[in-house]
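Ops channel
N.P.: pipeline sanity check, posting one input/output pair.
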């Protein structure tokens, strides 16, 4: 049912770092967790082709949250590959409006004006998700022994994907660019801490973060949050 994890690391615009996408390969197709920004589309397509993921084989795109660096290619992939887009309803407005601050605390006016320039999330990148995922929802209908977890904190609609083998794809709740930790960019820190507390009891073995390298969940057990 589940065969392989392909890790895809894509560069962000203006050398702002990198973001991870994860392509899960099953017996009858693929599932993509996050999809990078529109600025790195050619690199993403090259990685998908290298992994054998062709149009009509990509069954589902699961967005861990609505930020541009995780959702910027969703609309294109839906059109080009015939894949459905799935995310939590609390972040759906980000893709629909092209505004990563929908349903979040609002930044100052200067940042709001600069963000569209840096994100490259234009009208062509906007989308309405095909599926609104709920906490605990199984992904078995798409051929993957995994389920969705609600892990708010970075955004209200942040999701994780937990496989039966204990692999957790956590979006931007956790990061490992320096060392494994809660992401420093949080919309709701108490909610993020509660999400981490919950994950400690869910049999997670390996964490695949949105930024940085995978790490064993065991290293987060002693974190004082």
């Amino acid at each position: 049912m589940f065969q392989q994890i392909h890790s895809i690391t894509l560069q962000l615009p203006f050398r702002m770092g990198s973001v991870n996408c994860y392509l899960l390969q099953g017996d009858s197709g693929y599932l993509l967790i996050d999809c990078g920004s529109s600025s790195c589309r050619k690199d993403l397509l090259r990685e998908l082709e290298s992994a054998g993921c062709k149009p009509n084989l990509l069954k589902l795109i699961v967005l861990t949250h609505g930020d541009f660096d995780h959702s910027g290619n969703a609309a294109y992939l839906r059109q080009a590959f015939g894949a459905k887009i799935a995310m939590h309803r609390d972040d759906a407005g980000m893709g629909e409006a092209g505004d990563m601050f929908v349903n979040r605390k609002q930044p100052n006016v200067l940042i709001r004006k600069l963000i569209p320039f840096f994100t490259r999330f234009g009208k062509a990148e906007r989308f309405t998700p095909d599926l609104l995922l709920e906490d605990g929802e199984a992904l078995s209908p798409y051929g993957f022994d995994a389920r969705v977890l609600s892990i708010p904190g970075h955004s209200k609609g942040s999701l994780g994907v937990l496989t039966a083998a204990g692999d957790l794809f956590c979006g931007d709740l956790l990061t490992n660019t320096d060392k494994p930790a809660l992401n420093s960019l949080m919309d709701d820190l108490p909610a993020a801490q509660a999400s981490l507390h919950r994950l400690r009891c869910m049999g997670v073995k390996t964490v695949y973060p949105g930024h940085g390298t995978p790490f064993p969940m065991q290293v987060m057990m002693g974190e004082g949050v």
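N.P.: looks fine end to end. The chain has one domain: 2-219.
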